[in-house]
Design goal:
- By secondary structure, the protein is mainly beta.
- Helix content is 8%, strand content 36%.
- It is built from 3 helices and 14 strands.
- A hairpin with a 2-residue loop joins strand 13 (222-230) and strand 14.
- The relative contact order is 0.20.
Length: 256
Amino acid sequence: AGSRGGGPAAPPPRDGGDRALVPAPGGRRDGSSRGRTPGGPAAAGGASCMSNDGRSFLSHSYGGGTHSILVEVAPFVDADDGRGEDAADRATGRKSGRVRIDAVLPRDVSESLSVDPVLGLVCCDGSPTRISEEDDGAGGRGRTARLPWVCVYTSASAFLLRISYPVPDDGDNEEGGRVIKGKVERLVEPFGRYLLSSPRGTEIVRIRPGPTGGPASCRPGSLAMLVREGRGRHAVVLHHGLGDGAGGRRGMTPGG
């Protein structure tokens, strides 16, 4: 349930979807794919999902002792939204070429993923990428993009992640694409309390997102977890999301 098992990256400030429009390559219709490698973490990751708006492809990556979430921003173009700039360009920070965001996971998450192989990566937020203007730490102002919430899980733990990255200026774009360093700015263990108090030998079988569209739309971060509790018994555990705005609080919230 908690972190187990060494990876890089200092812990971020921490807290406490429906099916993807298109399936991940080689994945299932729910937009996720499983990348379990017995005996340790997969060198190339393997778990992946498509954001619910169909604009970002996210995947787990492992190499050199580092676990990361890689985000490929597809070259899709929206109709002009009336403000002189395509919504897709504002969200990705590009005018041409592909953009990839590389977000190294916090140390305690990396430790957990190094002990128990990643079973899946699930997009669980129907909202689009959000852009805000903030202080850049150098006396100026810059734009920050926040991706929808995503859940990465193993047989023993699950983590909700909110990834952000700086939107580059138009002049910073390079033909042929570029890599931008992202960060995990919010982290939640949605089933932490349940897993800590569950019977010995309890294992997560799979996690699925709640609906994110229509009259049955759920809050961001809503999840259903199927677990095997031993002796052939199974249970379904629900996490009812992160509340309006899904901003969360600074500090760890186990959830559950």
